Amino acid sequence: MAKEHVLNLNAQQKKTVLAAFLGWTLDAFDFFLLTFLLTDIATEFQTDVPAVSKALFLTLATRFIGAFFFGMLADKYGRKPILMLNIVSYSVIGALAAFSPNLGIFLALRALFGIAMGGEWGLGSSLAMESIPPSARGMVSGILQCGYPTGYLLAAVVYGLLYQQTIGGYTIGWRAMFLLSFVPALIVLFIRSHVPESPAFVEAQKTARPGLLETLQKHWGVALYAVVLMMFFNFFSHGTQDLYPTFLKKQHGFDPHTVSWITIVANIGAIVGGLAFGALSEKIGRVNAITLACLIALPSIPLWAYSTTPFMLAIGAFVMQVAVQGAWGVIPVHLNELSPGSVRATLPGFIYQAGNLAASYGGPYQAGIAERVGGSYGYALALFAGVVAVCIIVVIRFSPERRGQVMTVLG
């Protein structure tokens, strides 16, 4: 039923969903480019992978600032104009990393990139969820969250096709890869011309609304619970994705082409999972869909982390990301349904990114664990995936279920 509604979205609704999807896709593309380049950046700056992986930590740790800042602007001035500002910001800052003269400047730029990156998810998801029929939200939630693995897949394809290739006598290195971050700015032209403002936001301008602090005081319990939930969710996704290319290169010695195609297979699984579980959540509920996805992750761990051939690792990565992004595919709609309308551009994104902050040191921590046990990145990945999947299963069972509620920007 949900799928039928998505196919019957009007032209403006389809363009809104497309804009939100593309914004998150290219946001993720910019982020995941770094995960393929950690070893190369470490070599150039004469340091080790754990030191460079602090860029992952800083990006994740500062995202909550952007979620709060851009979300507040969007709740005041509208989802559409602030979404455009946000996309231009992360595009420009992402590209500036190409000119870093040393590791310190590079880390500072990635911290700024995290601020810009942090705003997009909340803005895009609130704009989309407020613009579509309630029965279409589950499927659209899956579509939106699939922007993340699609961005990862795109980064893998670009890495596999372009990295270390020679064009016109110039060999493409890690700096040239970051220049591709300028590409997302082109989405702004599409949003400006074809995407309308959220109908719920437009309607809400006719009525006085409570402020953020007043709303948080009233709903602090749900907000605090959701931050804890998102901490585990961010451990789940980043703990299974960010160091996987490094695991393939450093522990298995695979070349860029092999790393690229295994990562592509993993992200095809992520897209399948996001779409399937987003749609399934309309039938069995948000909480049950997330629980089922996490249960699937557990038996896939040995194949994903301890296989020895590229083919078997790819199968394991496919199943793992079906589970991880299957659970994540429910999150855009679940957080928007849990959030009061007057702060819907601020609160879901802020909750998401506050969870990111709590989980932000996961990458360096995983790398440190791996190095302490003789470079076994597989062990570090398996440990994180197993523990966090169980934690999500336990915590999600306490979540309110608000599937299908009417969304306004009041209250």
From TrEMBL:
Residue intervals of the Major facilitator superfamily (MFS) profile domain = 16-403
Source domain of life is Bacteria
Q: Which residues cross the membrane?
A: 21-43, 55-74, 81-99, 140-162, 174-191, 219-239, 259-280, 287-305, 311-333, 377-398
Q: Where in the cell is it found?
A: Membrane
- Whether Cell membrane counts among this entry's keywords is no
CDD domains tied to this protein? MFS_SV2_like
Name the Pfam families for this protein. Answer: MFS_1, Sugar_tr
Q: Which PROSITE patterns does the protein's record reference?
A: MFS, SUGAR_TRANSPORT_2
Q: Which InterPro entries match?
A: MFS, MFS_dom, MFS_sugar_transport-like, MFS_trans_sf, Sugar_transporter_CS
Give the record's membrane topology: Multi-pass membrane protein
Coiled coil regions in record = none
Which terms are listed as keywords in the entry?
A: Membrane, Transmembrane, Transmembrane helix
Entry-linked PANTHER family: CARBOXYLIC ACID TRANSPORTER PROTEIN HOMOLOG
Name this polypeptide is given = MFS transporter
Give the species this sequence originates from: Mesorhizobium newzealandense
